[in-house]
Amino acid sequence: MSSRIVILGGGTGGTLTANRLRKALRESEASITVVDADDHHVYQPGLLFVPFGLAQPEDIVRPRARQLHRGIDYHQSAVDHVDLETDQVVLSDGAILDYDVLVVASGSRLVPEDTEGLTGPGWMENVFTFYDLPGASALAEKLDGFDHGRLVVNVVDLPIKCPVAPLEFCFLADWYFHERGVRDLVTITYVTPLDGAFTTETASQTLGGMLAERGIEVVTEFNTGEVDGPAGRLVSYDERVVDFDLAVVVPAHSGSEFVAASAGLGDSLDFVITDEHTLQSKAKPNVFAIGDAANLPISKAGSVTHFEGETLVGNIQRFLHGEELDGSYDGHANCFIETGFGKALLIDFNYDNEAVGGHFPSRVGAPLLKESRLNHLGKLMFQWFYWHVLLPGRDVPGLSADMPTAGKDLPAREAS
């Protein structure tokens, strides 16, 4: 009897999972259905470039259904809830999908309404976000006419998608205003709830030093309680204030609303409670999660989803065959960090090892924790890689899900 696999979400995780499963399982073995509320697949790393005129909105959006291999059904509808007891997905259009295996790949959503004042007066006037396409597009127009004043980049809370993107925005803003000859007239401040520039110590020191070199102020341990657009003020819960003329805010994130409506599926932030090594949900054995939808202790980034895909697809096959699951996923994360002026930084880390220097993916490769033109080109090339390799679920020779240790400056006891 053919197994029924339902995948909730047609973004990075859902698309690559569906395509990998379709290659691994014959149609007589399994039907695969992908569900999403719309047919607009956004290349989210491209959102960073839109405000600076380095990418156009139409160039980073493609139809979701066209990214799926033949033999995969696409159902366009929002999800109302998942009934874990009956193994059914109830959709907002009234349809009910029965499943033998469910994959939650619904990503994370912005919840700007959770921060007092953020979407009030000033929103899309002097307060913006670049974390969605309308915000990035509106910010491009605003930046074009901004030639003096206080620019503040604020992360409200964690976790967020692509934790390095707000830092990249600061670096690109520094470059952008230099190119326009007005950098001396613009102050740039990075405001974060963290105690440093980034989540891991070594990377935080490196990135913090780079911000200082560029004259970008960093305000740490700032937990934003209110955004006052008309007065141009960020106010923390402990009543500290950061003034701005233009605020670029990364709103708080949560999981999908249907996760909250599905008893037992998610945590307090509506992310799916997931085993960090097998990607199996802790709610029920036939439910799995991938990418930003999972509550894993690692960055919510496209590279993480890519590396998770290999383990996830293998474990779905093992589950269908009644075999023990593979618990080898190590939290591998990899990210290019655009630093402006045609250069970028590369970091590579996992659950147990923070970002260190060296090279990736081996002793010969792109430099780690060091600005280079090669890393910048890698950042630009990733868009082609995303559409033509990552989403189709193709394997990359020499690049596995496990974090490579060769070429890294790891402590001797960890290197191999």
How is this fold's topology laid out?
Layout: E1 3-8, H1 12-24, E2 30-36, E3 41-42, E4 61-62, E5 72-76, E6 79-83, E7 88-91, E8 96-98, E9 101-104, E10 109-110, E11 127-128, H2 133-144, E12 149-155, H3 165-179, E13 186-191, H4 201-213, E14 217-219, E15 224-228, E16 233-236, E17 241-243, E18 246-250, E19 253-254, H5 257-260, E20 287-289, H6 302-320, E21 333-340, E22 343-349, E23 358-360, E24 366-368, H7 373-390
Helix pairs in contact: 1-6
Overall description:
A five-stranded parallel sheet has the order 5-2-1-9-20, with helices on one face. It has a five-stranded parallel sheet with strand order 11-18-12-13-14. It has a three-stranded antiparallel sheet with strand order 6-7-8. The protein has helices spanning 12-24, 133-144, 165-179, 201-213, 257-260, 302-320, 373-390, and strands at 3-8, 30-36, 41-42, 61-62, 72-76, 79-83, 88-91, 96-98, 101-104, 109-110, 127-128, 149-155, 186-191, 217-219, 224-228, 233-236, 241-243, 246-250, 253-254, 287-289, 333-340, 343-349, 358-360, 366-368. The mean pLDDT is 95. It has seven helices and 24 strands. The chain has 416 residues and is of the alpha/beta class.
